[in-house]
Specification:
- The chain has about 200 residues and is an all-alpha fold.
- The chain has a single domain, classed as Methane Monooxygenase Hydroxylase, Chain G, domain 1 (Up-down Bundle), CATH 1.20.58.
- Helix content is about 80%, strand content about 0%.
- It is built from six helices and no strands.
- Helix 1 packs antiparallel against helix 4 and helix 2 packs antiparallel against helix 3.
- It is globular and about 60 Å long.
Length: about 200
């Protein structure tokens, strides 16, 4: 993410980080979680470099509106990486146990896949090879349905883990929801430039 041109790849990396953090969460894989945390340090350095690159361009050339969108996009991608780091930390703190009950693994596996797909679509949008509506209507809506299914499961008669565990599951669920929010914010911002 050292230059503005690398923002599409930065989005892709954010999705890959969330997918790896999800794997660490589901499998109680300390090595995978540590790797996500290690990579996050490198991504943080790249974020600072990207912000500096945008500011330099803003001072010397280019459409200020385009550059402002780039700067906001850098910030959103950084937040997406932070959310992946938070999921990895949840996995690390529970070691050597699983952080969440096994019967929610399927929900989080699906959300991790969706986050990765959303990041891939976002990369395509930034490269001009996909349309905004695919992100808004397909990925965002499906992630929302997954959140609702998880909540329904936790408030139903099959939930046997108590309130404290439900609150922890909801806390982690929010990380995926916020990841989606940042990705969709990028997509809306990019769409506003083409109007």
């Amino acid at each position: 993410m050292g230059t503005v041109e690398q923002l599409p790849d930065a989005c892709l990396h954010a999705g890959a980080q969330m997918l790896r953090a999800t794997k660490a969460l589901i499998l109680a894989d300390a090595g995978e979680a540590q790797d996500v945390l290690r990579v996050h340090v490198d991504l943080t350095v790249r974020t600072v470099e990207a912000e500096a690159s945008v500011i330099q361009l803003l001072r010397h050339e280019g459409d200020p509106r385009d550059l402002a969108v780039s700067l906001q996009t850098v910030a959103d991608v950084n937040q997406m990486n932070i959310l992946a780091r938070r999921v990895a930390r949840v996995a690390m703190h529970a070691q050597p146990m699983r952080a969440l009950p096994e019967d929610v693994n399927g929900y989080f596996s699906e959300m991790g896949d969706r986050a990765d797909q959303l990041a891939r679509r976002l990369r395509e949008l930034l490269e001009g090879t996909t349309q905004m509506h695919r992100i808004r209507h397909e990925e965002e809506d499906e992630m929302g349905r997954q959140h609702r299914r998880l909540f329904t499961f936790m408030t139903g008669p099959e939930w046997m883990h108590g309130v404290a565990v439900a609150l922890e599951v909801m806390r982690v669920d929010i990380y995926y929801e916020r990841f989606t929010d940042h990705a969709v914010a990028i997509a809306h911002r990019v769409q506003s430039l083409t109007r």
